[in-house]
């Protein structure tokens, strides 16, 4: 059939229809491409940092500690813990860090002022450190806690601040740290993350409900002595849009659950940008990952680094007592009071004696150390009314719907002689006779020790 | 219309033989705005849409009254965290009301208007008459899109304005306490709350595009509305499944609650930009789908 | 130049004296064999208000609604577009107006291609398509204002006056502020006509304009069409009821099952070659008369006791009379009967007014 006008117009019409449908196809491709083109962490492509040795890099990292940093941090935990769905619905709360993914925003002037905010959907949990003062504020409960040092601590702090200004502050020495490691934090965070806390405390009062940052986690990991670890340089990466060196810390010890810790360090500012902790039990994804998704080195604004509680908010005052701390010199885990350490390095197990777990879990986990904590609900009359209908334990603490007891029951499993929390990185055994054993070792090791 | 009834038309200026086959009919300037005005009158003048707006306005009113009446009772402070804040600052009623309406009521109203946009005209038979006027299909779709967007904006504005007035009347306005616990001056706070409303409004661009697309697929407006309502619901469900976190960032509703950025000590503009970019992406994809469908479809209604 | 009007006539059913038989199933092949219908006198290409060539629409369901239709509506004509319900009239009209895309074939309206030139063409076309469609909750006036606002080629300042004139013209002025929802079917139909008359048009396409109208209303519509035609407007008016529009049409096109089975000037549709001569004779002379007619080459269709009926063909009636008289037949009466449009319609569509398919 010869091409008639109608067959020509047919094909042109079909073309025009096809051309129109091509528009959404292109739109999908373009939008899809835009979505796909946002890799936050890319491997070596385009990284051409000069080679450095591990020692040089560690030196640079420790020198860069006073760099002001702000940015967004994503924290992902794949600890293999039972999921705690309630945590997602109750707004921004440090318990969210037990599993899944959390976003934090971090600002620090690099010296002694910082703010870390755990972001929830339409909620926020903030930890603000302003010199010798520290605050936590939860938008969900509307509660502000003000932490101050006691007199001796303030004196020590002033002395350190002067030394810092004169440049005579010794490099971090845990022996000099006058503050306590909060037990609940030690119980909840993997050992090597807990190790950072001494450094954190060096500059101010100990805050319960602490939030992690890549810098602190990285420094903790890097400080664990070479006696127990092998340091190697990994492939250079791009992290948060920055070219970065990678250090791999591998425990020499086979008994630990930690397979390796990978630290990425900004190639020009030497600020740690990302820390991954890999478990021996999962080779596909890190059990813990804490990294910047965007980072800036400008000094944060004054508004961010100061905090004054909202008017009308009940502020709970906590004075952090100064106490002498037994500690080890070469970077092994600092041990809390009343604790004994079995083993050393990565596979060390901390044993706490005489812990009344039942009493502890009856309260909010972030208020473990402080029996005076009260859940504040609205006005005082309402508070009194509600108190009468709430189950309380003998210490008068108010049980929450998402209370620590529930959390404790969810996370632990009963075993012979106690309850066991077993995760990809850390195991906790609570014995019926009041001992708590914590370590980055398999659960069987703990049970054997107990 | 018997000959007596019918006004005899004036004789044409030229006889049939002289009238050109296709006389020139140039477009008048401002014609698009005229059509748009007509469409907006139709959308905003429609009883059903007015009822939806009134219904939405009742939410902050009722919310404010309930909070006010339970202020000193045992029920105080229940619900999402910042509903309790309302008693301290009426400005928070805007945020609380938008928060309450965001998951379902607002999407529902906006889905009704956008799903109805083209399918409604098809059902009443007005679509074919508009097209033979003629209105080019692209132009009509654009006008329909603007109409639906204006309605979406009106929904959010109705809630925000009524909430602001109710909140101010019942609780007064004060410097605003942010989620971060910091307090900002009233002017700054009012701007931030306005920002919340603006962001919430802009968050519906994608949904309007989806509704418009469904609206071009059917002559049954209820079907298009229902399909449109389902999208944010499904999106919310998918967003809550941690197993699907790979697709979370592209879900329509994923960034809806990022309006909270306006209530943080430092507004995360990049987060807000990401949310708006996502909406733009949905709008581009579904807008172009709607365009391709509507400009090639056979109008058999 | 394309050849216009490639419509062929289906094989005419033989008049056997019995009931008219429907044409055998309208095979598509029949239409493709080109045997052009003579164009109406004086209509060149430029004079066609509507012309389609091989217009075909196959819906996605596979149904062929319109099959190779070659429509030709001359300028100034009142074209009666006839066919039973479901014969493809509305789909054809929708293709003329650019609402439905043809599967194949060409459409020219007022000399321009559709749907490509819709923006240029449609301002000059008033249309009533498959019943009136208006916003139920708006008044007649508001509905017309809305349609007028959509027209980007009219002066908004004259909008109100034109709407009033159109309402006046269809007799709706008194009810102009009533909501459309409250209108009777007849009033709705009138409002549809008013919308088509919002501005002067070169072509009016009226699909079933008398639907729902009472006899009086139907008469009014006919009057309106006459007036418009007198102004020089071409009118394409479709109906499944032949009687309602037959009187006003200058041209006729008949659709059946997707095919345009006949079109042309109204006078030509009832084809003279199908005229029959009916001779009345005394009882005994019928066979003689039959013989005479056969001798003239006429096909005798029926011989009764009182007369003979035969197809006249090209033979002048006078010659028949002369031959009968010459043969000594006593002619008591002689009549020439041309088939009525109604008969043609029923014969071609085979279904009268029933719904096809």
Any overview of this molecule?
- The complex is a heterotrimer of chains A (450), B (301) and C (357).
- Chain A is an alpha+beta fold.
- Helix content of chain A is 27%, strand content 28%.
- Chain B has a two-stranded antiparallel sheet.
- Chain B is mainly α.
- Chain C is 29% helix and 23% strand.
- Residues 1-45 and 353-357 of chain C have low confidence and may be disordered.
- Chains in contact: A-B, A-C, B-C.
- Chains B and C meet through α1 and α5 of B and α3, α4, α5 and α7 of C.
- Chain A: This is Outer membrane lipoprotein-sorting protein.
- Chain A: InterPro entries: Sporulation_related.
- Chain A: The chain crosses the membrane at residues 21-41.
- Chain A: It comes from Cellulomonas marina.
List segments of chain A where confidence is low: pLDDT < 50 over at least 5 consecutive residues. Answer: 1-8, 169-204, 324-337, 363-402
Ends distance of chain A: 93 Å
For the residues shown, what is the average pLDDT of chain A? Answer: 70
Order of strands, main sheet of chain B, comes to 1-2
Number of strands of chain B: 2
Record field, number of beta strands of chain A: 20
InterPro entries (chain A): Sporulation_related (IPR052944)
Keywords (chain A): Membrane, Transmembrane, Transmembrane helix
Organism (chain A): Cellulomonas marina
Protein name (chain A): Outer membrane lipoprotein-sorting protein
């Amino acid at each position: 059939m010869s091409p008639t006008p109608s067959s020509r117009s047919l094909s042109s019409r079909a073309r025009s229809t096809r051309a129109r449908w091509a528009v959404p196809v292109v739109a999908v491709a373009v939008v899809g491409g835009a979505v796909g083109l946002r890799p936050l962490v890319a491997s070596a492509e385009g990284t051409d940092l000069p080679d450095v040795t591990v020692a040089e890099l560690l030196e640079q990292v420790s020198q860069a500690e006073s760099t002001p940093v702000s940015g967004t941090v994503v924290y992902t935990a794949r600890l293999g813990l039972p999921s705690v769905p309630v945590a997602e619905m109750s707004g921004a709360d440090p318990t969210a860090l037990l599993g899944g993914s959390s976003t934090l925003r971090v600002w620090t002037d690099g010296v002694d002022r910082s703010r870390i905010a755990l972001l929830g959907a339409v909620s926020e949990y903030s930890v603000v450190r302003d010199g010798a003062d520290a605050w936590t504020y939860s938008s969900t409960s509307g509660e502000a806690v003000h932490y101050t040092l006691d007199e001796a601590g303030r004196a020590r702090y002033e002395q350190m601040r002067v030394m810092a200004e004169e440049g005579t502050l010794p490099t971090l020495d845990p022996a000099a740290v006058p503050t306590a490691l909060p037990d609940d934090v030690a119980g909840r965070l993997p050992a090597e993350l807990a190790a950072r806390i001494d450094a954190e405390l060096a500059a101010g009062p100990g805050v319960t409900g602490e939030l992690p940052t890549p810098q602190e986690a990285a420094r903790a990991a890097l400080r664990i002595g070479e006696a127990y670890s092998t340091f190697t340089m990994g492939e250079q990466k791009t992290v948060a849009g920055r070219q970065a060196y990678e250090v791999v810390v591998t425990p020499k010890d086979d008994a630990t659950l930690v397979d390796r810790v990978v630290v990425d360090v900004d190639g020009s500012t030497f600020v740690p940008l990302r820390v991954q902790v890999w478990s021996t039990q999962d080779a596909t994804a890190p059990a813990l990952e804490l990294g910047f998704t965007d980072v800036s080195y400008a000094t944060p604004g004054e508004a961010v680094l100061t905090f004054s509680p909202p008017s009308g908010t009940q502020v709970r005052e906590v004075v952090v007592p100064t106490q002498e701390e037994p500690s080890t010199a070469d970077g092994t885990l600092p041990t809390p009071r009343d604790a004994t350490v079995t083993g050393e390095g990565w596979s060390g197990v901390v044993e706490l004696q005489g812990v009344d777990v039942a009493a502890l879990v009856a309260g909010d986990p972030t208020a473990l150390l402080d029996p005076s904590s009260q859940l504040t609900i609205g006005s005082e009359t309402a508070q009194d009314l509600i108190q009468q209908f709430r189950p309380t334990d003998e210490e008068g603490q108010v049980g929450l719907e998402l209370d620590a007891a529930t959390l404790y029951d969810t996370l632990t499993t009963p075993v012979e002689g106690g309850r066991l929390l077993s995760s990809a990185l850390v195991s906790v055994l609570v014995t019926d006779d009041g001992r708590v054993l914590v370590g980055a070792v398999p659960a069987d090791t703990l049970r054997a020790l107990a | 219309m018997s000959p007596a009834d019918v006004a005899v038309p004036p004789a044409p200026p030229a006889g049939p033989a002289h009238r050109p086959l296709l006389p020139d009919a140039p477009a008048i300037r401002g014609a698009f705005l005229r059509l748009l005005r007509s469409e907006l009158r139709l959308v905003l003048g429609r009883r059903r849409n007015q009822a939806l707006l009134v219904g939405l306005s009742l939410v902050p009113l009722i919310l404010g009254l309930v909070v006010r009446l339970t202020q000193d009772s045992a029920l105080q402070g229940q619900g999402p965290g910042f509903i309790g804040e309302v008693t301290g600052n009426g400005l928070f009623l805007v945020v609380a009301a938008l928060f309450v309406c965001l998951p379902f009521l607002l999407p529902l109203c906006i889905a009704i208007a956008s799903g109805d946009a083209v399918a409604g005209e098809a059902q009443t038979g007005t679509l074919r008459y508009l097209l033979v006027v003629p209105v080019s299909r692209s132009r009509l779709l654009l006008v329909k899109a603007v109409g639906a967007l204006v309605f979406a904006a009106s929904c959010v504005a109705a809630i925000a304005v009524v909430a602001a007035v109710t909140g101010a009347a019942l609780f007064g306005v004060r410097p605003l306490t942010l989620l971060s616990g910091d307090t900002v001056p009233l002017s700054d706070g009012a701007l931030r709350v306005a920002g919340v409303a603006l962001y919430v409004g802009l968050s519906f661009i994608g949904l309007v595009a989806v509704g418009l697309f469904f609206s071009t697929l059917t002559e049954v407006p209820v079907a298009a509305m229902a399909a449109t309502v389902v999208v944010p619901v499904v999106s919310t469900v998918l967003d809550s499944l941690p197993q699907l976190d790979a697709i979370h960032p592209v879900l329509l509703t994923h960034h809806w609650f990022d309006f909270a950025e306006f209530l943080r000590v430092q507004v995360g503009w990049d987060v807000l930009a990401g949310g708006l970019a996502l909406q733009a992406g949905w709008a581009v994809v579904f807008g172009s789908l709607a365009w391709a469908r509507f400009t090639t479809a056979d109008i058999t209604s | 130049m394309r050849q216009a009007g490639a419509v062929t006539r289906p094989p005419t059913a033989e008049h056997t004296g019995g009931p008219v038989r429907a044409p055998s199933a309208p095979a598509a092949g029949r239409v493709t064999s080109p045997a052009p219908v003579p164009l109406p006198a004086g209509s060149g290409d430029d004079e066609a208000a509507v012309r389609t060539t091989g217009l075909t629409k196959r819906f996605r369901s596979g149904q062929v609604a319109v099959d190779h239709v070659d429509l030709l509506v001359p300028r100034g004509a009142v074209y009666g577009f006839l066919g039973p319900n479901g014969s493809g009239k509305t789909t054809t009209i929708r293709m003329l107006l650019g609402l439905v895309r043809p599967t194949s074939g060409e459409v020219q309206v007022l000399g321009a291609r559709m749907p490509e030139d819709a923006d240029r063409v449609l301002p000059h076309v008033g249309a009533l398509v498959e019943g009136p469609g208006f916003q139920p909750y708006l008044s007649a006036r508001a509905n017309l204002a809305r349609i007028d606002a959509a027209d980007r080629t009219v002066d908004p300042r004259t909008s109100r006056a034109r709407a009033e004139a159109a309402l006046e013209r269809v007799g709706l002025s008194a009810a102009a502020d009533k909501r459309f929802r409250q209108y009777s079917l007849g009033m709705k139909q009138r409002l549809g006509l008013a919308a088509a008359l919002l501005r002067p048009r070169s072509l009016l396409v009226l699909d079933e304009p008398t639907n729902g109208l009472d006899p009086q209303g139907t008469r009014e519509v006919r009057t309106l069409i006459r007036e418009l035609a007198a102004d020089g407007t071409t009118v394409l008016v479709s109906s499944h009821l032949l009687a309602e529009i037959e009187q006003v049409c200058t041209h006729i096109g008949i659709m059946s099952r997707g095919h345009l089975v006949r079109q042309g000037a109204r006078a030509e549709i009832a084809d003279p070659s199908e005229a029959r001569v009916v001779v009345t004779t005394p009882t005994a002379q019928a066979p003689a008369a039959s013989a005479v007619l056969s001798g003239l080459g006429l096909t005798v269709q029926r011989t009764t006791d009182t007369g003979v009926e035969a197809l006249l063909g090209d033979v002048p009636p006078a010659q028949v009379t002369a031959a009968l008289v010459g043969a000594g037949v006593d002619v008591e009466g002689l009549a020439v009967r041309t088939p009525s449009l109604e008969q043609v319609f029923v014969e071609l569509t085979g279904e009268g007014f029933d719904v096809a398919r």
